[in-house]
Amino acid sequence: MDILKGLYAAVLTTMLVLSGCLHEQTEAGMINRYDADDAADTATSGTSDTLIRLHMSGDDSLSWTSTNIRLSVDDAIYGCSLGGADECQISQQGGDDGNVWEPGEYIFLSESGTDICNDIGCRVDISVTYKDNTVSGDSSIIVN
């Protein structure tokens, strides 16, 4: 009888651990992915170039209040926000809700008063997090 109780406890523990893993992997936004492309604007020494186009795929809309996008060039790190309060401005195209980044929606990342990329062939590293978890996607792109 004790052997059956021990076996039952082991099976139950395994099921609980597996159910926790499944829950973590399906957390909102964690099955989403973004792809990055050059925005087809020429990088100049100006401070208003449109640099990168990001496209979201997946199942979840990501609230802007919980989404963090950062760009880095060499040793400099630039925050991105809606409305241009940071060095990098986010503009949405194609979504229905201005408060979230929706699957299928494109966003554009532009300089907002700061010369982030001033040369053709500029390498920009990209970081996107949602609720402090990394969203899968292209980690860098060459901006021309």
Question: In summary, what is this structure?
Answer:
The chain has one helix and twelve strands, in the order αββββββββββββ. The chain is of the alpha+beta class. The longest helix is centred in the N-terminal third of the chain and has 24 residues, at 2-25.
Summarize the structure in words.
The radius of gyration is 20 Å and the shape is globular. 17% of the residues lie in helices and 42% in strands. 23% of the residues are buried. The strands form two sheets. Strands 1, 2, 4, 5, 6, 8, 9, 10, 11 and 12 form a ten-stranded mixed β-sheet that branches. The protein starts with a helix and ends with a strand. By secondary structure, it is α+β, with helices and mostly antiparallel strands. The longest helix is centred in the N-terminal third of the chain and has 24 residues.
